# Entry
Amino acid sequence: MNFQDVIFYIFSAILVASALGVITVRNPVYSALLLVLAFVTCAGLWLLLEAEFLAIALVLVYVGAVMVLFLFVVMMLDINLDRLREGFWKWFPFGALIALAMVIEISMVLMNKYFGLEEMPTPKPHEADYSNTRELGRLIYTEYAYAFELAAVLLLVAMVAAIALTLRHREDKKSPNPSEQVKVRKEDRIRIVTMPSEKKD
Amino acid sequence: MNFISPEFAPAYSEIFMLVMVCVVMLADLSAGGNRRYVAYLLTQITLMGCGLLTFLSFTTEASQTFSGMFVDDALADILKLMVYGTVSAVLIYSHAYISDRGLLRGEFFSLILFATLGMMVMISASHFLTLYIGLELLSLSLYALVALRRDSIMATEAAMKFFVLGALASGFLLYGMSLIYGATGTLHVSQLAQIIQSEASSKEVLVVGLVFVVAGIGFKLSAAPFHMWAPDVYEGAPTAVTLFIGSAPKLAAFGFVMRLLVEGLGEMVADWQGMLIILAVMSMAVGNIAAIAQSNIKRMLAYSTISHMGFLLLGFISADSNGYSSALFYVIAYVLMTLGTFAMIMLLCRSGFEAENISDFKGLNKRNSWYAFIALVLMLSLAGIPPMIGFYAKLAVLQAVVNAGYIWLAVAAVLFSLIGAFYYLRIIKMMYFDEPETDEPILPNNDVKILLSANGLAVLALGIFPQALMGFSLYAIQNSM
# Structure
């Protein structure tokens, strides 16, 4: 076993343990933090696969943005844990049975010779000056430009949908309308009243 | 590193569509609340413009662009033209309905156009990535459209189910695609066939991938046993959206299956044939039997869709150009019938009243005999009774199945459609022999009147003269295989 294998097993063990923790710990905040740990170790595994850019993007996007947002939401929501756990043990045997069947099925497919190490040999490592980021950038903006643009359209759809589903105009809200405010004229606000001057007594 | 800039000409209609979606959004924003017809008109103009662009660039020669991710051939052009026509008809039919229910907003039109763009991408995709992104573009727009009536609990629940199951289906599809990529090392549909033919890849891994891909397709086509979402979504969505979900996306799904299973994995026909037979038989059984028990017309039509998707899959089983063209004929016939049927339902809706139950059709003949006649034609066609188009669609598919040697399958299909005839005939009985529950007049706009009449008559005329459409389908398939 060489050094990379040792690293792989350490990372994998942490990844599996933290992923298990995500679904077993009682406190949702711990659960979210364990998910962060899972992402970071996963990024470590990707580094071993020479996917440096993706590993860093995973940490930046998922850990840095998505999970932090998630943590905020978890902390702000008042989740009733007892209600969530209701019926867990009632359905546990059924769920466990299905999970077991799936594990056996998956291992039957993956353990046999078609997915073995002989069938899928380790790819040759790249030279030290090979830049993963550069390759990715080159491909995205040339060969995959069409798919890249479409992915951008997908984000636009998500934005339109989110706004369409959540934006509400309330009739009774009291907020100033800036464009009306700018257009205001002197006559609208000031009334000049002529009145005779009065004498001081 | 030399990079040749891609040819944009084959994709002009897609580019035009994307630009116009943005124009529709901005125009609606600046038009303001009481000029919603601007977005409606612009949407229709967009569809017409796309139709013109696609029609003018029509060639039988296939051209690829964007590094082989995009293909433009006869099948793609024909399917796209059908999609534009269908979407345009959907909008004409649903205009009154959505404006009565406060859904006449710019987002409705932009989401419909985004969905149309997704369908166009799917139809001309020749790469797993574009197939998937097109599908997601379509699905995401549909989820949002279903949830658009956000104060309705039913609609929200339907959207949630649709979203969760749709995400699961996408997961299946992606997993299958990744396994196929692992086995063959390519994502290009055209290269895939060559690599599988050269037997350089592990057959077993490919089959595992194929299972997942077929399951994903089953979900998207709402074929049993992956049909659970369809009745709830059909019932919960606003009828205009149900009409949209039930019509144009089926054309795109046909294109998707053609690209993925026939062009890409055509070498594995022996493997997917069996899977499709299971899906087809189950869909026909579940669809036709469960529809009998429904009292909600939208749910009933959802089950009817499931059984029709079973018939559509029968066309693929024979795996020759006759079979594919009969499937294309079937999907065109199905879209025509669905358009008319849902338009009838929306015709019965008034502002403040949703026609949802089968009993709302009671005594339609006394209220308006012309619309009752059109509904009669549509129901007979859905049931597959000659001389309507639905009969010839079923006949063509069954012929293909018999030619492929699956006589038992054809017998089963006939038996199931016999069961199905019951619930279509029940509506006819209600229209002609029952007393109306209301004497509210049916007053559609002129455009709906003309289009619905044309739609009903097309179902009848194409049933009497099916050769033209049949030859057209065969032409489309033969020129792109």
